[in-house]
């Protein structure tokens, strides 16, 4: 594996240093396609696999395979050096073309010949002016939640990292960083749009997602690098086993940042369920074992005891963490519970459309009626003030 990585690095360096001395090969019609398809089928299995070996993208390989572009001589030589059985394809090379064969003349030569350089540059900039995007103007709904976090001195970048680890994604392709967040709840979509705009110098985009949801997306190299400084990976199952998604960045954050991190995590990937028979359950979905272990340890700091949700269908044997203990559910409620006004999705046929905090309050009410709170000695605080007076009374749950 080390030798292969070294070979790729050497190839990239050679390509960078001698790119202008390279040539493009012109094969007999159909033979370049036959050559690459044979190599892909017998050695790599896909265009992406070959591209990874050569240090280029699969679109570049696709251009060579379809004979839209002529394959560079250095690439052909690298392949036949690694796999001598394909040297027979040399007989189908008709001629070697210059590296820049087929390129449109322009660049520095064209600019140097332009007499009105200022006017020409102004003309060019007019085509890219649409890329200079302003930050979005926040609505009242967005100001309410985002303003609350700012007033409590919450680290917004950490909240974005939690959102990306749960219902989002971060895709790095060369020097491009694409950050996405998806949800079917308007409150969360509005907040994500405002949060992206607050932390980035660009305006995010909103487009339709699957099953009636929406996706907030932004391309920002600086913001992407900041997120990767917090967690080295945001995919559930990363290719590199050493770099796993992590919430360890929360350890040195303020108390309010930690509280809001818990609230957002449970709001996005968690739920409170109340079966017709049995105990209420508070759960957080997560299919990465190391991240589940971190969440268990982190929640224990706030007195919330959880255990793994085991799943044979999951790649790592876990599907998240959960608790049936009323004390833990009550402590989550004391932290503020879920994000206000966020509703239960269509995944729950029984409670779909109800606010998550409304169902959480109903679970707490049932526990109080059963005397569970008095058994725990948590009915009153140290000043003798009843903590439960503000709980809403729900006469019937759908």
How would you characterize this protein structure?
Helices cover 44% and strands 14% of the residues. With 398 residues, the protein is of the alpha+beta class. The strands form three sheets. A four-stranded antiparallel β-sheet has the order 3-4-6-5. The radius of gyration is 28 Å and the shape is elongated. The termini are far apart.
Task: Please sum up the structure shown.
It is built from 16 helices and 10 strands. By secondary structure, the chain is of the alpha+beta class. The strands form 3 sheets. Strands 3-4-6-5 form a 4-stranded antiparallel β-sheet.
**CATH topology-level fold name of the largest domain:** Endonuclease I-creI
Roughly what fraction of the amino acids lie in strands? 5-15%
**Termini, distance in Å?**
58 Å
Task: Write the CATH architecture name of the largest domain.
Answer: Roll
Uncertain residue ranges? 1-8, 11-20, 129-135, 379-398
Percentage of residues in helical conformation: 40-55%
Oligomer: single chain
Characteristic terms for this protein:
398 residues; Endonuclease I-creI; four-stranded antiparallel sheet; alpha+beta; 3 domains; disordered C terminus; elongated; disordered N terminus; 14% strand
């Amino acid at each position: 594996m080390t030798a292969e990585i070294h070979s790729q690095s050497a190839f990239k360096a050679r390509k960078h240093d001698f790119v202008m001395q390279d040539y493009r090969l012109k094969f007999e019609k159909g033979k370049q396609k036959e050559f690459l398809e044979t190599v892909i089928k017998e050695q790599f299995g896909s265009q992406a696999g070959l591209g990874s070996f050569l240090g280029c993208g699969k679109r570049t390989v696709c251009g060579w395979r379809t004979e839209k572009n002529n394959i560079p001589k250095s690439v052909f030589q690298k392949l036949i050096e690694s796999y001598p059985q394909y040297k027979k394809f040399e007989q189908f090379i008709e001629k070697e073309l210059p590296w820049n064969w087929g390129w449109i003349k322009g660049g520095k030569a064209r600019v140097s010949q332009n007499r009105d350089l200022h006017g020409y540059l102004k003309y060019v900039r007019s085509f890219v002016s649409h890329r200079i995007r302003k930050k979005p103007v926040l609505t009242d709904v967005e100001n309410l939640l985002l303003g609350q976090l700012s007033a409590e001195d919450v680290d917004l970048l950490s909240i974005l990292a939690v959102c990306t680890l749960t219902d989002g994604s971060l895709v790095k392709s060369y020097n491009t960083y694409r950050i996405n967040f998806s949800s079917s709840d308007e409150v969360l979509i509005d907040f994500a749009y405002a949060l992206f705009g607050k932390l980035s110098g660009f305006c995010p985009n909103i487009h339709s997602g699957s099953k009636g949801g929406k996706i907030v997306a932004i391309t920002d190299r600086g913001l992407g690098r900041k997120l990767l400084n917090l967690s080295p990976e945001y995919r559930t199952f990363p290719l590199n086993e050493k770099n796993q998604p992590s919430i360890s960045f929360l350890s040195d954050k303020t108390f309010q940042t930690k509280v809001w991190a818990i609230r957002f995590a449970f709001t996005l990937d968690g739920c409170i369920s109340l079966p017709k028979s049995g105990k209420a359950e508070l759960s957080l979905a997560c299919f990465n074992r190391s991240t589940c272990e971190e969440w268990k340890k982190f929640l224990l700091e706030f007195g919330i005891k959880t255990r793994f949700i085991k799943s044979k269908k999951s790649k790592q044997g876990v599907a998240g963490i959960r608790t049936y203990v009323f004390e833990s559910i009550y402590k989550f409620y004391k932290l503020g519970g879920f994000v206000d006004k966020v509703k239960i999705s269509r995944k729950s046929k029984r409670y779909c459309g109800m606010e998550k905090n409304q169902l959480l309050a109903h679970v707490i009410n049932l526990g109080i009626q059963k005397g569970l709170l008095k058994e725990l000695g948590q009915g009153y605080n140290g000043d003798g003030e009843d903590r439960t007076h503000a709980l809403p009374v729900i006469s019937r749950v759908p």
